[in-house]
Amino acid sequence: MNRACTFATLALTLIGGSALQAAQNAQPQPAAAPALLESAPKGTVVFDDDDWRVQIIPRQAVAGRDATFHGGPVIAHGLVQAVFLGSGWRDKANREKENGVMEGLRGPVQAADFPAKSGVRAWEAHGLPFEDPAADPVAGERITGLEIQARLETLLSGAGPTDASSVYVVFLAPGLGTALGPRHSEKDFAAYHNLFHGANGVVHYVVVPFDADSSRWLAAARQSLHQALINPEGTGWY
Fold first, then answer.
1. Which of 55, 77, 115, 175 is the most buried (most CB within 10 A)?
2. How far is 175 from 10, CA to CA, in rounded Å?
3. What is the predicted pLDDT for the residue at 39?
4. Are strands 189-198 and 53-58 parallel, antiparallel or unpaired?
5. Distance between alpha carbon 215 and the CA centroid of its chain, in Å?
């Protein structure tokens, strides 16, 4: 009798487990997260020091196409703040270049910059520029992407929670380049945008190495800022 009861209990357990598994299999599975910049045009993506895909403004011409939506978030109304980073901004002649940067950054906004269905509209300047004229890296004339993040984290540490709509545009001082993994700003990219998780929240930012051609410098900054707004996490419009 005990053995019969044991077999009956085991059979019920197996049947119940099978039914539960079948019910779980029948439940709708959550949609897979969109892949980060998976189908971006060739030549517009590099990997940073964290092996994270980063959207760049390449120095070499690449085949263009209209941005398409990939399911991720956008920044509908950006609050944009400039950051001047590097000891070169101490020089009086260079400091004069800071004047009018925000107006030049706005420039002529083209309809193609903000796809009609994206919900993104014109950004606004927010607050006074941050300045970080600290000494440049000892190792040479380039600052790494990770060090830029560390500098931003320090600058923002006393500013309270980070607004989800904020985008910080980091203008590197003349003579200071940057690198993303093995790629260098001198030959590979004119600007890029990225994000990191800071103590006060997610920080979206654009990095713009200096270019003596002010028109080209600001054009690269504008293009990268617009990409940061429509594609802040690499899964939006690109």
1. 55
2. 75
3. 87
4. antiparallel
5. 23
